[in-house]
Amino acid sequence: MNDDARTLIAFQGEPGANSDTACRNMYPAMTPMPCPTFEDAFTAVDRGEASLAMIPIENTIAGRVADIHHLLPESDLHIVGEYFLPIHFHLMALPGTDRSAIRTVHSHIHALGQCRKYVRANGWEGIIAGDTAGAAKKVAEAADPSMAALAPELAAQLYGLDIVERDVEDQSNNITRFVVLSKAPFIPARRSEDELIITTFVFRVRNIPAALYKAMGGFATNSVNMTKLESYQIGGLFVATQFYADIEGHPDDANVKLAFEELNFFSDHFRVVGVYRGSDVRKTNSGS
Fold first, then answer.
1. Which of 229, 226, 281, 285 is nearest to 83 (CA)?
2. What is the mean pLDDT of residues 51-69?
3. Which residues does 284 contact at the CB level (< 8 Å), separation at least 6?
4. Mean pLDDT of 7-28
5. 3-state secondary structure labels for all residues of 98-152
6. What single-letter DSSP state applies at residue 272?
7. Global pTM?
8. E strand or H helix at 57, and its extent?
9. N or C: which end of the chain has fewer CB within 10 A?
């Protein structure tokens, strides 16, 4: 990896996307590197063209980002951090545009869905774009005052648009969780017993009766808090199910070791994808 690549953090989308904002907020000293697709962002890190990647993995409104649960286990990349970004959509248009002139609103399909009531109440037509920042770029390039975009504030700054109205999302509790990926694993040492460490792993259980129940038993009996467990099909087969899980704990913790031993016994595939310090947002949401 050359020196320039060490300062780059890849993300999917146009400059000004929410992923771009997450990069700038968490790593202000690094340069965000836009990529057309999630796979391109993964490849940039794998080939050493970027040091890290900032990838959205789930949203409180839209749920999980399905592509990531397939790309991450198949890659050799590791989760080394996480970031929670409150999502706000702003109505933006050409400078000086009066909202009465707006006829169409452009944005990503999820953004349009999360602002559906607002768009409908104003009688505008929603037009699907590849991503939110790309929609803002399209409005700027079209120079048509009848067009507006729903996008993050950063997009308005980058493409010279005016924000006509702020925070137009239908629900205020809209948060996206991002994971930071690296080619080299980084497993932090515990700084204190009560430090929040998250371990992410994938596994496939053996084809025996009650295998999943038995595999999960070790986490309950050893008091390991599992914060996420999701399943998805692999290889195009309904009988081939892979599980993705997050737990609170470090692989070196005695209770986690015991839980993993039991999981391994009932699994035919198990891999730790990342060990990283949990965001303070988790503590706030848990009330601790």
1. 281
2. 87
3. none
4. 96
5. CHHHCCEEEEEHHHHHHCHHHHHHCCCEEEEECCHHHHHHHHHHHCCCCEEEEEC
6. E
7. 0.89
8. strand 52-59
9. C
Dihedrals phi, psi of 193, to nearest 5 degrees: -65, -30
Q: Is 67 exposed, middle or buried (0-12, 13-18, 19+ CB in 10 A)?
A: middle
Query: What pLDDT score was predicted for residue 232?
Result: 81
As given in the structure block, the two tokens for residue 136 are 């803002």
Q: Which residue do the tokens 């430090």 mark?
A: 195
d(CA 97, CA 112): 21
pLDDT for residue 64: 82
Residue listed under structure tokens 């986690």: 256
Q: Is the pLDDT of residue 222 over 50?
A: yes
Which H or E run includes 283?
helix 280-286
What H or E segment, with its residue span, contains residue 21?
helix 18-26
Residues with Cβ within 8 Å of 45's Cβ and at least 6 positions away in sequence, in order, are 10, 51, 52, 53, 77, 181, 182, 183
- Please give the positions annotated as active site: 176, 178
Per the listing, tokens 């990838």 go with 55
Least confident segment among 31-35, 112-116, 138-142, 229-233: 229-233
86 vs 109, 169, 206, 281, CA distance in Å? 18, 11, 39, 11
Closest residue by Cα to residue 202 from 233, 244, 251? 244
Q: Tell me whether residue 132 is exposed, middle or buried, using C-beta atoms within 10 angstroms of its C-beta: 0 to 12, 13 to 18, 19 or more.
A: buried
Query: Quick count: other Cβ atoms within 10 Å of Cβ 74?
Result: 10
Mean of pLDDT over the chain: 92
